[in-house]
Amino acid sequence: MTILTNMLFSFLAAASFGIMYNVPKKLLIKCGTVGMAGWMAYYFLSENNVDPLASTVGASFTIAVIGHVYARLYKTPVIIFTIAGIIPLVPGGTAYRAMRAFVQNDYGNAMSLAAKAFMISGSIALGLILSDVFYQLLIRKKVPVGK
Amino acid sequence: MEAKLEEKYDIMDVSLIAGKIMLENGAETYRVEDTMMRIAQSYGIRDSHSFVTPTGIMFSIETDEPTKTKLMRISNRTTDLYKVSAVNAISRRISAGELTTVQAYRELKAIQKAPMFFPFWIHILAAASTSGCFVILLKGSFDNVLPAMIAGGLAYFIVLKVANIVPTVFFSEFIAALVGGAAAYLFYRMGFGGDLDRIIIGTLIPLVPGLLITNAVRDLMAGHFISGLAKGAEALLTALAIGTGIAVIMTLI
Q: What residue stretches are annotated with the Threonine/Serine exporter ThrE domain (chain A) (predicted)?
């Protein structure tokens, strides 16, 4: 049940974000599935006690790989899929708790939370980078660029 | 001779307008450069150079005549991925040789003038829906969804409206976080939703600069350091503006 709820709401969240960024109507469902796949990857990894940083890398890698496949299939820029996908991974909660600790003059906690939020953002970037490299090494070789 | 000269400028204009639309609506820098050069190439320009930053495009083409260069200033940027993908589709058709420069120019102009793909109120609804979904994704309970949706929709409404009235960057995000946070706190005090933290996080999610983060990373990876750093700084300052807005609320509580 929890899994189903998570799937449904991550799908909705990514698709809604797609609407906010004016993603073409026919691609919204695909945006939603990218977001859902990424969030489920994150969910399963973190539920199985994988480190949050590693889970984030795994999830953003999943998102970007699916994004690249979709971009090829539907001949659209890859960012359309990745943007909506990574939104659920953004460390909003951690950043918020860091900000709250700062305001309460609890600088020790605030710094460690802020560092954590920063590291998670870095992990999102790392996942995207890894998948781009992966894509360039594996897929681009088969199809010459430009044609 | 005269006609040929004009033709060359047409190619430049098509490339530039395509680049301008893409950059203004949230494409990555390398995609803008790539599209512009591909368009020029498909029209038979063997050598072209483009230099794109978030605030301007420089483009030059080399022909038998002296090199021509044009500069285009980009002053306001929004996010409309529909236009990005529409220009991308046109660029593909140009590469396939389906469009003449005049046809391409007209189609690009039409895209530039087109209104937002989704109307305003749908944007607000989408923001509200994102806020609500996040409460659930962050393991919150269902009774917090509705307050988060209302506060999130309100925050997004304000960010769009204030950006139109006050051109100062980051101010709209600050005010939106302030009002969104205040609304969330009000709901919490009224007993409408019991988990203030999750309501506030949900409220702020529509303001997160997701596009900037993604584009900053992709630009840096592609070696566009100026654009990448500029977008990274913009994302960081946006996040700070949101954080400051919410911090003000928290000090008042």
A: 6-133
